[in-house]
Amino acid sequence: GEDVEQSLFLSVREGDSSVINCTYTDSSSTYLYWYKQEPGAGLQLLTYIFSNMDMKQDQRLTVLLNKKDKHLSLRIADTQTGDSAIYFCAESKDQGGKLIFGQGTELSVKP
Amino acid sequence: DTEVTQTPKHLVMGMTNKKSLKCEQHMGHRAMYWYKQKAKKPPELMFVYSYEKLSINESVPSRFSPECPNSSLLNLHLHALQPEDSALYLCASSQQKGQGPNTEAFFGQGTRLTVV
Q1: Those residues with Cβ within 8 angstroms of residue B32's Cβ, 6 or more apart along the chain or in another chain
Q2: Which residue of A44, A97, A101 is in closest CB contact with B98?
Q3: Which of B25, B30, B42, B105 could cross-link with B93 by S-S, CB 3.0 to 4.6 Å?
Q4: Binary contact (A96, B48; C-beta < 8 A)
Q5: B65-101, pLDDT tens digit by residue?
């Protein structure tokens, strides 16, 4: 995960917006992904963004991409207790199919 | 249907045992992956299969042996494992590998392996 960095923890109150940030290093990455992992479970693909886009919105989720700064963020509107999980950003390294994950941000939602 | 099914969900094995992890998808995906995830860490790639051929082996010890019998199935054969191999083993698939459309990977729920 050294190529992709995330802060480790985020705590928000229910109903607030959450913003999870990620920086990556490989400027050739064309697709960037957000995955959610609940305790004891596998990874759930939340959304992805193509590098020629600045923003993608999908219901409560908004992804912002600043390609110049290699910065990716995931905003969750109206955060619910069910959103508590670890969120991983990932970049696709090359044509080989390898995903490079960040360390994951543990989101805690307090009622 | 975006389901990747892994069995078993939990596995405890001794260091002299031989066991296999299984992964199945019926989405017509032609790329399949094995990842290893230790607690509180991100997943790390082990193997990539593309069109049933091994295309990436991330220097994984030979005590882990992957097999892709057909386009829907992916196995991971385990032999003479060590306690430090205890982890969550995740299978994933994508329509194709690489960068670009239809390369997003869908993960199974994982097999939690404990080596005693």
Answers
A1: B23, B25, B48, B49, B68, B74, B91, B92, B93
A2: A97
A3: B25
A4: yes
A5: 999 999 999 999 999 999 999 999 999 999 987 777 7
Interface touch A41/B110, C-beta < 8 Å? yes
Q: Cα–Cα distances in Å, from B88 out to B30, B33, B41, B81?
A: 23, 14, 10, 14
* Residue B93 structure tokens: 């698939």
- In this structure, how many other beta carbons lie within 10 angstroms of the beta carbon of residue B66? 20
Give φ, ψ of B84 to 5 degrees.
-70, -5
* CA triple A57-B4-B96, angle to 5 deg: 70
- Which residues of B, range 59-98, sit inside 8 Å of A by Cβ? 90, 92, 94, 97-98
